[in-house]
Design goal:
By secondary structure, the chain is mainly alpha-helical. It has eight helices and three strands; from the N terminus they run H-H-E-H-H-E-E-H-H-H-H. The chain has helices at about 5, 10-20, 25-35, 40-50, 80-85, 90-115, 135-155, 175-180, and strands at about 25, 55-65, 65-75. Helix 2 (about 10-20) packs across helix 6. About 15% of the residues are buried.
């Protein structure tokens, strides 16, 4: 299966999210983390991710006559790098965005469905706003955001830590000519 097709699927994206932090998890663990997804669906997608090398089997044990496998995420195979993103067609970008939004929507609903969900206490945020940026300012902001996120990216699971899904979306909302008041780049209408 093509890497884009493999990773741009809402259930597989959710499995990749659930496997973050270097954790080792079983398919049963993943089914518990994705309670809205049918177990057969989770098992099928775990199989595809193993076959593609995104998940690796790190341990097997017999449990009630069956083999229980423990999986770990292979981060180097679990993302779309800049070169791959640059080679994507507009339709592939459309598909990828839809898959990411479907996964985000499902994860948010799963959060709200949990006992004791408290968006205020958990500092849940889903704000949107428009920022006006030059190309240089946009590049600087992206660099600053990368630095902030990189400073926490190495955090591993710990008793006082819980995973949080962070989704950053950035795209222009108008064509360049509209942003310039109807003038083209050379200043002429």
């Amino acid at each position: 299966m093509d890497t884009l097709d493999l990773l741009l699927h809402p259930v597989r994206l959710r499995i990749v999210h659930a496997m973050s932090g270097g954790r080792t998890r079983t398919t049963s663990d993943l089914c518990a983390s994705l309670p809205d997804a049918p177990k057969t669906t989770v098992y099928r997608h775990v199989g595809l991710l193993v076959e593609a090398g995104v998940l690796e089997i790190v341990h097997e044990q017999r449990v009630h006559g069956a083999v229980e496998r423990h999986y770990r995420l292979r981060r180097e195979h679990a993302g779309i790098d800049a070169d791959m993103a640059a080679s994507m067609s507009l339709e592939e970008h459309r598909h990828g965005f839809a898959a990411a939004m479907a996964a985000l929507h499902a994860e948010f609903n799963a959060y709200l469905d949990r006992d004791g969900a408290d968006p205020t206490a958990d500092a849940v945020g889903y704000r949107q706003g428009t920022v006006w940026l030059t190309r240089r300012e946009r590049a600087e902001m992206i660099g600053e955001l990368r630095d902030v996120l990189a400073s926490r990216a190495g955090n591993e699971p710990a008793p006082d830590r819980s995973p949080h899904l962070l989704s950053v979306i950035l795209f222009p909302t108008e064509e360049a000519s509209q942003r310039r008041g109807g003038q083209q780049a050379d200043g002429h209408p």
